[in-house]
Protein backbone atom coordinates (compact mmCIF):
# COMPACT_ATOMS: atom_id res chain seq x y z
CA UNK A 1 0.00 0.00 0.00
CA UNK A 2 1.76 3.23 -1.08
CA UNK A 3 2.08 5.74 1.78
CA UNK A 4 0.57 9.20 1.25
CA UNK A 5 3.56 11.55 0.67
CA UNK A 6 2.52 14.01 3.40
CA UNK A 7 1.78 14.17 7.10
CA UNK A 8 -0.85 16.27 8.84
CA UNK A 9 -0.04 19.61 10.47
CA UNK A 10 -3.44 21.27 10.89
CA UNK A 11 -6.53 19.28 11.89
CA UNK A 12 -10.22 20.06 12.11
CA UNK A 13 -12.54 18.23 14.54
CA UNK A 14 -15.34 16.14 13.06
CA UNK A 15 -18.68 15.64 14.81
CA UNK A 16 -19.99 12.33 16.17
CA UNK A 17 -23.73 12.48 16.66
CA UNK A 18 -25.66 9.67 18.35
CA UNK A 19 -28.20 7.60 16.35
CA UNK A 20 -31.18 9.59 17.71
CA UNK A 21 -29.54 12.91 16.93
CA UNK A 22 -28.80 11.76 13.38
CA UNK A 23 -32.39 10.54 12.93
CA UNK A 24 -33.69 13.93 14.11
CA UNK A 25 -31.24 15.80 11.86
CA UNK A 26 -32.25 13.81 8.77
CA UNK A 27 -35.94 14.25 9.57
CA UNK A 28 -35.47 18.02 9.91
CA UNK A 29 -33.55 18.01 6.60
CA UNK A 30 -36.60 16.54 4.82
CA UNK A 31 -34.52 13.38 4.26
CA UNK A 32 -32.39 15.27 1.76
CA UNK A 33 -28.64 15.15 2.58
CA UNK A 34 -28.14 18.51 0.81
CA UNK A 35 -30.16 20.09 3.65
CA UNK A 36 -27.98 18.64 6.41
CA UNK A 37 -25.58 20.92 8.23
CA UNK A 38 -21.95 19.95 7.71
CA UNK A 39 -21.51 19.85 11.50
CA UNK A 40 -23.95 16.93 11.67
CA UNK A 41 -21.77 14.76 9.43
CA UNK A 42 -18.92 12.47 10.48
CA UNK A 43 -17.50 11.48 7.06
CA UNK A 44 -18.61 13.74 4.21
CA UNK A 45 -18.40 12.04 0.82
CA UNK A 46 -20.92 14.28 -0.93
CA UNK A 47 -18.33 15.73 -3.33
CA UNK A 48 -14.62 15.78 -4.13
CA UNK A 49 -15.04 19.32 -5.47
CA UNK A 50 -13.49 22.15 -3.47
CA UNK A 51 -13.40 19.87 -0.42
CA UNK A 52 -9.69 18.97 -0.43
CA UNK A 53 -6.95 19.98 2.02
CA UNK A 54 -4.33 22.49 0.92
CA UNK A 55 -0.62 21.98 1.60
CA UNK A 56 1.77 24.05 3.70
CA UNK A 57 3.43 25.15 0.44
CA UNK A 58 0.08 26.32 -0.94
CA UNK A 59 -0.68 28.33 2.21
CA UNK A 60 2.80 29.83 2.21
CA UNK A 61 2.32 30.88 -1.41
CA UNK A 62 -1.11 32.30 -0.55
CA UNK A 63 0.51 34.61 1.99
CA UNK A 64 2.31 36.25 -0.96
CA UNK A 65 -0.94 36.72 -2.89
CA UNK A 66 -1.08 39.97 -4.85
CA UNK A 67 -4.60 41.41 -4.75
CA UNK A 68 -4.06 44.12 -7.38
CA UNK A 69 -7.14 44.57 -9.55
CA UNK A 70 -5.28 44.03 -12.83
CA UNK A 71 -1.99 42.39 -13.75
CA UNK A 72 -1.32 40.95 -10.27
CA UNK A 73 1.90 38.96 -9.74
CA UNK A 74 -0.27 36.03 -8.64
CA UNK A 75 -2.02 35.97 -12.02
CA UNK A 76 1.30 35.62 -13.85
CA UNK A 77 2.42 32.83 -11.53
CA UNK A 78 -0.87 30.99 -12.12
CA UNK A 79 -0.86 31.64 -15.86
CA UNK A 80 2.75 30.49 -16.31
CA UNK A 81 2.11 27.28 -14.38
CA UNK A 82 -1.02 26.50 -16.36
CA UNK A 83 0.64 27.40 -19.68
CA UNK A 84 3.51 25.02 -18.92
CA UNK A 85 1.09 22.24 -17.98
CA UNK A 86 -1.41 22.63 -20.84
CA UNK A 87 0.46 24.42 -23.63
CA UNK A 88 -2.54 26.63 -24.50
CA UNK A 89 -1.57 30.12 -25.69
CA UNK A 90 -4.71 31.73 -24.21
CA UNK A 91 -5.78 31.16 -20.62
CA UNK A 92 -8.66 32.73 -18.74
CA UNK A 93 -9.33 32.30 -15.01
CA UNK A 94 -12.90 31.70 -13.77
CA UNK A 95 -14.28 31.21 -10.27
CA UNK A 96 -15.31 27.60 -10.98
CA UNK A 97 -15.83 25.14 -13.82
CA UNK A 98 -19.44 25.97 -14.68
CA UNK A 99 -18.59 29.65 -15.22
CA UNK A 100 -16.05 28.52 -17.82
CA UNK A 101 -18.68 26.27 -19.43
CA UNK A 102 -21.17 29.14 -19.66
CA UNK A 103 -18.61 31.46 -21.24
CA UNK A 104 -17.22 28.86 -23.66
CA UNK A 105 -20.59 27.55 -24.86
CA UNK A 106 -21.99 31.08 -25.19
CA UNK A 107 -19.09 31.96 -27.49
CA UNK A 108 -18.80 28.67 -29.38
CA UNK A 109 -22.25 27.09 -29.74
CA UNK A 110 -25.12 28.45 -31.82
CA UNK A 111 -28.78 27.66 -31.03
CA UNK A 112 -29.80 24.37 -32.64
CA UNK A 113 -26.28 22.93 -32.64
CA UNK A 114 -25.36 19.65 -30.96
CA UNK A 115 -22.64 19.30 -28.31
CA UNK A 116 -21.38 15.71 -28.18
CA UNK A 117 -19.66 14.18 -25.15
CA UNK A 118 -18.70 10.82 -23.70
CA UNK A 119 -20.98 12.07 -20.88
CA UNK A 120 -21.82 15.67 -19.98
CA UNK A 121 -21.58 16.46 -16.28
CA UNK A 122 -24.92 17.90 -15.06
CA UNK A 123 -23.86 21.57 -15.04
CA UNK A 124 -22.23 21.07 -18.44
CA UNK A 125 -25.47 19.59 -19.75
CA UNK A 126 -27.39 22.56 -18.35
CA UNK A 127 -24.97 25.13 -19.81
CA UNK A 128 -25.19 23.54 -23.28
CA UNK A 129 -28.98 23.88 -23.06
CA UNK A 130 -28.74 27.46 -21.80
CA UNK A 131 -26.72 28.24 -24.95
CA UNK A 132 -29.71 26.93 -26.97
CA UNK A 133 -27.84 23.79 -28.09
CA UNK A 134 -28.53 20.11 -27.54
CA UNK A 135 -26.25 17.98 -25.34
CA UNK A 136 -25.80 14.44 -26.64
CA UNK A 137 -23.97 11.69 -24.74
CA UNK A 138 -22.25 8.91 -26.68
CA UNK A 139 -20.64 6.72 -23.97
CA UNK A 140 -18.93 3.53 -25.14
CA UNK A 141 -21.11 0.39 -24.80
CA UNK A 142 -18.87 -1.10 -22.06
CA UNK A 143 -19.78 1.86 -19.82
CA UNK A 144 -23.35 0.59 -19.61
CA UNK A 145 -22.22 -2.76 -18.17
CA UNK A 146 -21.49 -1.76 -14.57
CA UNK A 147 -19.64 -5.03 -13.87
CA UNK A 148 -17.41 -5.00 -16.95
CA UNK A 149 -13.72 -4.75 -15.94
CA UNK A 150 -12.85 -2.90 -19.18
CA UNK A 151 -10.04 -0.44 -18.29
CA UNK A 152 -11.39 2.55 -20.24
CA UNK A 153 -15.13 2.71 -19.72
CA UNK A 154 -14.93 6.52 -19.90
CA UNK A 155 -14.32 6.35 -23.66
CA UNK A 156 -16.62 7.89 -26.24
CA UNK A 157 -18.32 5.49 -28.68
CA UNK A 158 -16.18 6.13 -31.77
CA UNK A 159 -18.51 4.27 -34.14
CA UNK A 160 -21.49 6.34 -33.00
CA UNK A 161 -19.42 9.56 -33.20
CA UNK A 162 -18.25 8.76 -36.75
CA UNK A 163 -21.83 7.98 -37.80
CA UNK A 164 -23.17 11.18 -36.27
CA UNK A 165 -20.49 13.35 -37.88
CA UNK A 166 -20.93 11.88 -41.35
CA UNK A 167 -24.74 11.45 -41.12
CA UNK A 168 -27.57 13.91 -41.77
CA UNK A 169 -27.09 15.66 -38.40
CA UNK A 170 -23.32 16.00 -38.88
CA UNK A 171 -23.54 19.66 -39.93
CA UNK A 172 -25.22 20.51 -36.61
CA UNK A 173 -22.39 19.26 -34.40
CA UNK A 174 -20.79 22.40 -32.99
CA UNK A 175 -18.47 20.83 -30.42
CA UNK A 176 -17.12 17.52 -29.14
CA UNK A 177 -16.31 17.69 -25.43
CA UNK A 178 -14.50 14.81 -23.73
CA UNK A 179 -14.94 14.59 -19.96
CA UNK A 180 -11.75 13.20 -18.34
CA UNK A 181 -12.38 11.28 -16.16
CA UNK A 182 -16.04 10.46 -16.85
CA UNK A 183 -17.71 11.56 -13.61
CA UNK A 184 -21.26 10.94 -14.85
CA UNK A 185 -20.51 7.26 -15.56
CA UNK A 186 -18.51 5.83 -12.70
CA UNK A 187 -15.28 7.91 -12.59
CA UNK A 188 -13.99 5.89 -15.52
CA UNK A 189 -10.93 7.09 -17.47
CA UNK A 190 -10.62 7.88 -21.17
CA UNK A 191 -7.70 6.23 -23.01
CA UNK A 192 -5.20 8.21 -25.04
CA UNK A 193 -6.09 6.03 -28.03
CA UNK A 194 -9.74 7.07 -27.72
CA UNK A 195 -8.79 10.76 -27.39
CA UNK A 196 -6.56 10.48 -30.47
CA UNK A 197 -9.27 8.80 -32.54
CA UNK A 198 -11.95 11.29 -31.45
CA UNK A 199 -9.56 14.14 -32.23
CA UNK A 200 -8.90 12.71 -35.72
CA UNK A 201 -12.64 12.44 -36.43
CA UNK A 202 -13.19 16.03 -35.32
CA UNK A 203 -10.29 17.24 -37.47
CA UNK A 204 -11.71 15.38 -40.49
CA UNK A 205 -15.11 17.03 -40.04
CA UNK A 206 -13.87 20.46 -38.96
CA UNK A 207 -15.51 20.27 -35.52
CA UNK A 208 -13.84 21.85 -32.44
CA UNK A 209 -12.52 19.25 -29.98
CA UNK A 210 -12.34 20.27 -26.30
CA UNK A 211 -11.64 18.64 -22.94
CA UNK A 212 -13.64 18.96 -19.74
CA UNK A 213 -10.47 18.27 -17.79
CA UNK A 214 -11.67 18.54 -14.18
CA UNK A 215 -9.75 15.36 -13.28
CA UNK A 216 -6.91 15.54 -15.81
CA UNK A 217 -4.27 14.24 -13.37
CA UNK A 218 -6.36 11.26 -12.23
CA UNK A 219 -7.12 10.38 -15.86
CA UNK A 220 -3.39 10.57 -16.62
CA UNK A 221 -2.61 8.26 -13.70
CA UNK A 222 -5.11 5.65 -14.87
CA UNK A 223 -3.68 5.85 -18.43
CA UNK A 224 -0.23 5.25 -16.97
CA UNK A 225 -1.50 2.24 -15.03
CA UNK A 226 -3.79 0.72 -17.65
CA UNK A 227 -2.83 1.71 -21.22
CA UNK A 228 0.06 -0.13 -22.87
CA UNK A 229 2.99 2.12 -23.75
CA UNK A 230 2.51 4.73 -21.00
CA UNK A 231 3.94 3.00 -17.95
CA UNK A 232 7.19 5.01 -17.88
CA UNK A 233 5.55 8.34 -18.70
CA UNK A 234 5.06 10.93 -15.99
CA UNK A 235 1.42 11.84 -15.25
CA UNK A 236 2.33 15.38 -16.28
CA UNK A 237 3.54 14.26 -19.73
CA UNK A 238 0.40 12.17 -20.25
CA UNK A 239 -1.83 15.08 -19.24
CA UNK A 240 0.11 17.31 -21.65
CA UNK A 241 -0.39 14.84 -24.46
CA UNK A 242 -4.15 14.99 -23.85
CA UNK A 243 -4.18 18.81 -23.80
CA UNK A 244 -2.09 18.83 -27.01
CA UNK A 245 -4.77 16.87 -28.84
CA UNK A 246 -7.53 19.38 -28.05
CA UNK A 247 -8.39 22.83 -29.37
CA UNK A 248 -8.95 23.95 -25.81
CA UNK A 249 -10.30 22.97 -22.42
CA UNK A 250 -12.52 23.97 -19.58
CA UNK A 251 -11.29 22.90 -16.13
CA UNK A 252 -12.93 23.03 -12.74
CA UNK A 253 -9.80 23.52 -10.62
CA UNK A 254 -11.75 22.60 -7.47
CA UNK A 255 -10.73 19.01 -8.17
CA UNK A 256 -7.24 18.48 -9.62
CA UNK A 257 -6.26 22.12 -8.97
CA UNK A 258 -6.11 20.99 -5.30
CA UNK A 259 -7.92 24.18 -4.42
CA UNK A 260 -11.18 25.05 -2.71
CA UNK A 261 -12.21 27.30 -5.59
CA UNK A 262 -11.19 28.11 -9.15
CA UNK A 263 -11.41 27.15 -12.78
CA UNK A 264 -10.02 28.10 -16.15
CA UNK A 265 -10.48 28.12 -19.90
CA UNK A 266 -7.61 27.18 -22.21
CA UNK A 267 -7.92 28.19 -25.87
CA UNK A 268 -5.89 28.23 -29.08
CA UNK A 269 -8.15 30.29 -31.35
CA UNK A 270 -7.53 34.09 -31.15
CA UNK A 271 -11.05 35.07 -32.14
CA UNK A 272 -12.73 32.65 -29.72
CA UNK A 273 -10.44 33.94 -26.99
CA UNK A 274 -11.45 37.56 -27.68
CA UNK A 275 -15.16 36.66 -27.45
CA UNK A 276 -14.68 34.66 -24.25
CA UNK A 277 -12.58 37.40 -22.68
CA UNK A 278 -15.25 40.05 -23.32
CA UNK A 279 -17.88 37.87 -21.62
CA UNK A 280 -15.49 37.05 -18.77
CA UNK A 281 -14.84 40.72 -18.02
CA UNK A 282 -18.58 41.48 -18.06
CA UNK A 283 -19.60 38.57 -15.84
CA UNK A 284 -16.69 37.12 -13.81
CA UNK A 285 -14.06 39.83 -13.45
CA UNK A 286 -11.06 41.23 -15.27
CA UNK A 287 -9.11 38.70 -17.31
CA UNK A 288 -6.24 38.54 -14.83
CA UNK A 289 -8.40 37.36 -11.93
CA UNK A 290 -11.77 36.07 -13.26
CA UNK A 291 -13.52 36.04 -9.88
CA UNK A 292 -10.56 34.61 -7.95
CA UNK A 293 -8.44 36.34 -5.32
CA UNK A 294 -4.66 36.62 -5.72
CA UNK A 295 -4.40 34.14 -2.84
CA UNK A 296 -6.56 31.61 -4.69
CA UNK A 297 -4.38 31.99 -7.80
CA UNK A 298 -1.25 31.35 -5.71
CA UNK A 299 -2.72 28.21 -4.11
CA UNK A 300 -3.65 26.96 -7.57
CA UNK A 301 -0.21 27.60 -9.06
CA UNK A 302 1.28 25.32 -6.39
CA UNK A 303 -1.62 22.81 -6.44
CA UNK A 304 -1.20 22.24 -10.18
CA UNK A 305 2.34 21.01 -9.49
CA UNK A 306 1.48 18.89 -6.46
CA UNK A 307 -1.40 17.10 -8.16
CA UNK A 308 0.75 15.45 -10.84
CA UNK A 309 3.27 14.05 -8.34
CA UNK A 310 3.32 10.26 -8.88
CA UNK A 311 3.56 9.49 -5.15
CA UNK A 312 0.43 11.54 -4.43
CA UNK A 313 -1.58 9.96 -7.27
CA UNK A 314 -0.39 6.44 -6.42
CA UNK A 315 -1.47 6.80 -2.78
CA UNK A 316 -4.84 8.30 -3.71
CA UNK A 317 -5.59 5.64 -6.31
CA UNK A 318 -4.58 2.88 -3.85
CA UNK A 319 -6.81 4.31 -1.09
CA UNK A 320 -9.86 4.26 -3.37
CA UNK A 321 -9.03 0.78 -4.69
CA UNK A 322 -8.66 -0.54 -1.13
CA UNK A 323 -12.03 0.91 -0.12
CA UNK A 324 -13.61 -0.69 -3.21
CA UNK A 325 -12.12 -4.05 -2.26
CA UNK A 326 -13.44 -3.85 1.31
CA UNK A 327 -16.89 -2.87 0.07
CA UNK A 328 -16.99 -5.61 -2.58
CA UNK A 329 -15.77 -8.19 -0.04
CA UNK A 330 -18.70 -7.18 2.17
CA UNK A 331 -21.09 -8.09 -0.66
CA UNK A 332 -21.81 -4.61 -2.02
CA UNK A 333 -21.14 -4.19 -5.73
CA UNK A 334 -19.52 -1.04 -7.10
CA UNK A 335 -19.10 0.11 -10.68
CA UNK A 336 -16.06 -1.79 -11.97
CA UNK A 337 -13.17 -1.16 -12.16
CA UNK A 338 -12.61 1.36 -9.33
CA UNK A 339 -11.65 4.85 -10.49
CA UNK A 340 -9.97 7.41 -8.23
CA UNK A 341 -12.19 10.30 -7.19
CA UNK A 342 -15.26 8.27 -6.28
CA UNK A 343 -16.86 4.85 -5.92
CA UNK A 344 -20.36 4.19 -7.22
CA UNK A 345 -22.41 1.70 -5.20
CA UNK A 346 -24.91 -0.47 -7.04
CA UNK A 347 -27.86 0.20 -4.70
CA UNK A 348 -30.38 -1.33 -7.10
CA UNK A 349 -28.66 -4.71 -6.72
CA UNK A 350 -28.12 -4.45 -2.95
CA UNK A 351 -31.75 -3.53 -2.27
CA UNK A 352 -33.89 -5.66 -4.61
CA UNK A 353 -36.85 -5.31 -2.24
CA UNK A 354 -37.13 -1.63 -3.26
CA UNK A 355 -38.57 -0.60 -6.63
CA UNK A 356 -37.01 2.36 -8.50
CA UNK A 357 -40.08 4.39 -7.39
CA UNK A 358 -38.92 3.84 -3.78
CA UNK A 359 -35.49 5.26 -4.66
CA UNK A 360 -33.01 2.52 -3.60
CA UNK A 361 -29.98 4.82 -4.08
CA UNK A 362 -31.47 7.52 -1.92
CA UNK A 363 -32.56 4.94 0.64
CA UNK A 364 -29.03 3.55 0.90
CA UNK A 365 -27.59 7.07 1.20
CA UNK A 366 -29.97 7.88 4.06
CA UNK A 367 -29.11 4.60 5.82
CA UNK A 368 -25.39 5.39 5.56
CA UNK A 369 -26.05 8.67 7.32
CA UNK A 370 -28.35 7.18 9.97
CA UNK A 371 -25.96 4.32 10.78
CA UNK A 372 -22.56 5.93 10.24
CA UNK A 373 -22.91 9.72 9.89
CA UNK A 374 -21.75 9.35 6.26
CA UNK A 375 -23.05 11.73 3.58
CA UNK A 376 -23.08 10.80 -0.10
CA UNK A 377 -25.01 11.56 -3.29
CA UNK A 378 -27.69 9.53 -5.05
CA UNK A 379 -27.24 8.99 -8.79
CA UNK A 380 -30.42 7.14 -9.60
CA UNK A 381 -34.10 7.71 -10.21
CA UNK A 382 -34.45 10.53 -7.68
CA UNK A 383 -31.82 12.54 -9.58
CA UNK A 384 -32.31 11.34 -13.16
CA UNK A 385 -35.81 9.84 -13.36
CA UNK A 386 -38.80 11.70 -14.77
CA UNK A 387 -41.85 12.29 -12.55
CA UNK A 388 -45.49 13.20 -13.09
CA UNK A 389 -47.10 16.23 -11.43
CA UNK A 390 -47.92 14.14 -8.33
CA UNK A 391 -44.22 13.24 -7.90
CA UNK A 392 -44.70 9.69 -9.09
CA UNK A 393 -41.85 8.14 -11.01
CA UNK A 394 -42.64 7.80 -14.72
CA UNK A 395 -39.27 6.84 -16.24
CA UNK A 396 -36.63 5.38 -13.90
CA UNK A 397 -32.91 6.06 -14.30
CA UNK A 398 -30.90 3.32 -16.05
CA UNK A 399 -29.10 2.50 -12.77
CA UNK A 400 -29.71 3.08 -9.07
CA UNK A 401 -26.29 4.25 -7.86
CA UNK A 402 -24.84 6.08 -4.88
CA UNK A 403 -21.62 8.05 -5.29
CA UNK A 404 -19.03 8.05 -2.51
CA UNK A 405 -16.77 10.94 -3.56
CA UNK A 406 -13.39 11.04 -1.83
CA UNK A 407 -12.07 14.53 -0.95
CA UNK A 408 -8.35 14.96 -1.65
CA UNK A 409 -5.90 14.62 1.30
CA UNK A 410 -8.73 14.83 3.87
CA UNK A 411 -9.62 11.39 5.23
CA UNK A 412 -7.29 8.67 6.45
CA UNK A 413 -7.62 4.91 6.18
CA UNK A 414 -9.63 4.70 9.42
CA UNK A 415 -12.32 7.00 8.04
CA UNK A 416 -12.62 4.94 4.88
CA UNK A 417 -12.67 1.73 6.95
CA UNK A 418 -15.59 3.21 8.88
CA UNK A 419 -17.45 3.64 5.57
CA UNK A 420 -16.74 0.04 4.56
CA UNK A 421 -17.80 -1.28 8.00
CA UNK A 422 -21.03 0.71 7.97
CA UNK A 423 -21.86 -0.65 4.52
CA UNK A 424 -20.95 -4.20 5.53
CA UNK A 425 -23.43 -4.02 8.43
CA UNK A 426 -26.16 -2.74 6.09
CA UNK A 427 -25.38 -5.53 3.59
CA UNK A 428 -25.94 -8.18 6.31
CA UNK A 429 -29.59 -7.15 6.64
CA UNK A 430 -30.52 -5.08 3.56
CA UNK A 431 -34.28 -5.54 4.07
CA UNK A 432 -33.97 -3.20 7.05
CA UNK A 433 -33.47 -0.31 4.60
CA UNK A 434 -36.73 1.54 4.06
CA UNK A 435 -37.73 3.10 0.75
CA UNK A 436 -38.70 6.79 0.45
CA UNK A 437 -41.46 8.81 -1.17
CA UNK A 438 -41.39 12.44 -2.27
CA UNK A 439 -43.28 14.99 -0.18
CA UNK A 440 -42.48 18.13 -2.19
CA UNK A 441 -40.23 18.99 -5.08
CA UNK A 442 -39.07 22.27 -6.63
CA UNK A 443 -39.77 23.06 -10.30
CA UNK A 444 -36.06 22.80 -11.24
CA UNK A 445 -32.91 21.03 -10.02
CA UNK A 446 -34.97 18.53 -8.05
CA UNK A 447 -32.28 16.70 -6.10
CA UNK A 448 -30.97 19.82 -4.35
CA UNK A 449 -34.28 20.83 -2.79
CA UNK A 450 -36.61 17.83 -2.83
CA UNK A 451 -38.15 16.75 0.51
CA UNK A 452 -39.02 13.12 1.23
CA UNK A 453 -40.27 10.78 3.95
CA UNK A 454 -39.52 7.14 4.71
CA UNK A 455 -42.19 4.67 3.61
CA UNK A 456 -41.59 2.58 6.75
CA UNK A 457 -40.80 4.45 9.99
N1 LIG B 1 -17.19 19.02 -15.09
C1 LIG B 1 -17.11 17.92 -14.30
C2 LIG B 1 -16.65 16.63 -14.90
C3 LIG B 1 -17.45 18.01 -12.94
O1 LIG B 1 -17.37 16.91 -12.19
C4 LIG B 1 -17.87 19.26 -12.41
C5 LIG B 1 -18.24 19.39 -11.01
C6 LIG B 1 -17.92 20.36 -13.27
C7 LIG B 1 -17.57 20.20 -14.60
C8 LIG B 1 -18.36 21.71 -12.80
O2 LIG B 1 -17.38 22.32 -12.05
O3 LIG B 1 -18.38 22.57 -9.77
O4 LIG B 1 -16.35 23.85 -10.47
O5 LIG B 1 -18.56 24.42 -11.42
N2 LIG B 1 -18.42 18.40 -10.23
C9 LIG B 1 -18.73 18.43 -8.82
C10 LIG B 1 -18.98 17.01 -8.35
C11 LIG B 1 -19.75 19.42 -8.41
O6 LIG B 1 -19.35 16.85 -7.16
O7 LIG B 1 -18.77 16.07 -9.11
P1 LIG B 1 -17.68 23.34 -10.86
UniProtKB/TrEMBL annotation:
What organism does the record attribute this protein to?
Paractinoplanes lichenicola
Protein's name in the database: Tryptophanase
Protein family according to the UniProt entry:
Belongs to the beta-eliminating lyase family.
Q: Which residues form a coiled coil?
A: none
Domain Aromatic amino acid beta-eliminating lyase/threonine aldolase spans what residues?
44-421
Tell me which InterPro entries the record gives.
Answer: ArAA_b-elim_lyase/Thr_aldolase (IPR001597), Beta-eliminating_lyase (IPR011166), PyrdxlP-dep_Trfase (IPR015424), PyrdxlP-dep_Trfase_major (IPR015421), PyrdxlP-dep_Trfase_small (IPR015422)
Pfam families with a match to the protein in the record: Beta_elim_lyase
**Keywords per UniProt:** Lyase, Pyridoxal phosphate
From which domain of life does this come?
Bacteria
Spell out the NCBIfam families in the cross-references: PRK13238.1 (NF009709)
Q: Does the keyword Lipoprotein apply?
A: no
- UniProt KW Metal-binding keyword: no
Q: What cofactor does its activity depend on?
A: pyridoxal 5'-phosphate
Q: Which SUPFAM superfamilies match?
A: PLP-dependent transferases (SSF53383)
Amino acid sequence: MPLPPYRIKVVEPIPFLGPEERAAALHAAGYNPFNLRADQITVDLLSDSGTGATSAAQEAAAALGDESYAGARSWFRFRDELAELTGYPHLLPVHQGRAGERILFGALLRPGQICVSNTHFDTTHANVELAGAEPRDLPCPEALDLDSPDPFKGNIDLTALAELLSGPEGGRVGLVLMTITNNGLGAQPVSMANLEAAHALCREHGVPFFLDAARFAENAWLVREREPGYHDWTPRAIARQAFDLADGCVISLKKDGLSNIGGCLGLRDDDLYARCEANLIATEGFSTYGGLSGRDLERLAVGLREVVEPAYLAARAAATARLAQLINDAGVDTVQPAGIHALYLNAGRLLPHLTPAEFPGHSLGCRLFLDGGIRCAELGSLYLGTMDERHRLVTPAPFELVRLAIPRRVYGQEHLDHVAETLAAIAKDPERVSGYRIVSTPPMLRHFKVRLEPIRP
